[in-house]
Amino acid sequence: MTQRLLTDGGLETDLIFNRGIDLPEFAAFPLVDTAEGRAALRDYYSAYVDLAVRAGATVLLETPTWRANPDHGATLGYDAAALDRVNRTSVDLLRELAAGRDEELLGWQVGGILGPRGDGYQAAGGVDPAEAADYHRPQLAAFAAAGADRATVLTLTDVGEGIGIAQAAADLGLPVMIGFTVETDGRLPDGRTLGEAFAAVDEAAAPPYFFVNCAHPTHVARALDGGAWQARVGGLRVNASTMSHAELDVATDLDDGDPNLLAVDQKALLDAFPQVEVLGGCCGTDLRHVAAMWGVDAGR
C-alpha cells in the first residue's frame, strides 16, 4: 500500500458552521490578511498537525486558497497583485507552522489548493484548455514561487479546465493533482465518467495522479467498474453528507453525518483505489471525521 499523507477536512464548512466565521463567497483566503484570521487558521491547521503526530503520519498542509482566483477575488476586492500576495503568504503561513513542529512529525509537505473558475457544483459548459491554463497559471506560479511542494485543484466539473491546469503546472515545473467531483450517480455533472475524464487529461498532460472530492463515498462507489482508471486515483476527500450537490447548495444547516460511519463507507473506496496517497475530508467533515478515517482519537 502507498504510504499515505494525512490532510485536513472541509476547511470552509468547519470555519463557517463550527467556528462561526463568516466567509463571503465561501472564501477562506482573506483570513490570511488579518491577525485574527491567521490565528484562526493556525488553530485549525494545528489540530491536523496534532492528529498526524498521533497517527504517525506525514502531514500535508494545503492552503486555504480554493477561491483565490481572479473571478472570486475581484468580488472580494482582490486584484492580481493582491491575489499573488495572498497565495504566497498562505504557503508561507503553513510552512512556518509545519517547520515549528518538525521534530514531532514523521514528515510534512505544504500544498497549494486551487479551485474551478466557476461553481464547483455546476457543469462548466466546456472550458477551453488554453484559456484555463492562462487563467490559473498566476495562482500556480505564486505557489511555485513560495516553495510549495505541490498543488491540487479540487472540485472540477470540466475536463477542459483540468487539462489547462495540468498544462500550466507542467510549464511551471510544479506537480499538480487534478481533482474532479461527481454527482450522486458517480459521474461528472456533464455525464462523463471518471475514467473518461482521467483519460482525456492524461492524453494531454498527465498529472502525477487524480483526486476525487466533494462527494459522499456511496456516490463515488457508483463509478466503480474495475477499470484501469481506478489505479490513477491518488487522493480522496469525501463529503460527510449523502445529500446531492443541489441539496447541499441550498442547505442552511450543516449535515456532518456520522464520522465513524463515513470511515466505514470510505473503506470500499480505499480498497478500490489502491494508490491513494492523500487522505482527508471535504464539505461537512472536520477533525473527527479525518481522525476516524485514520483510526485515531480526534483529541479535541
Automatic annotation (TrEMBL):
Q: Does the keyword Transcription apply?
A: no
The record ties this protein, via InterPro entries, to: HCY_dom, HCY_dom_sf
Domain of life of the native organism: Bacteria
Q: What Gene Ontology molecular function terms does this protein carry?
A: metal ion binding; methyltransferase activity
PROSITE patterns from the entry? HCY
Q: Name one GO biological process term.
A: methylation
Q: Where is the Hcy-binding domain?
A: 1-297
Its required cofactor(s), as named, are: Zn(2+)
List ligand-binding residues for Zn(2+).
Answer: C214, C282, C283
Entry keyword set: Metal-binding, Methyltransferase, Transferase, Zinc
Write the protein's name.
Homocysteine S-methyltransferase
Q: What species is this protein from?
A: Nocardioides silvaticus
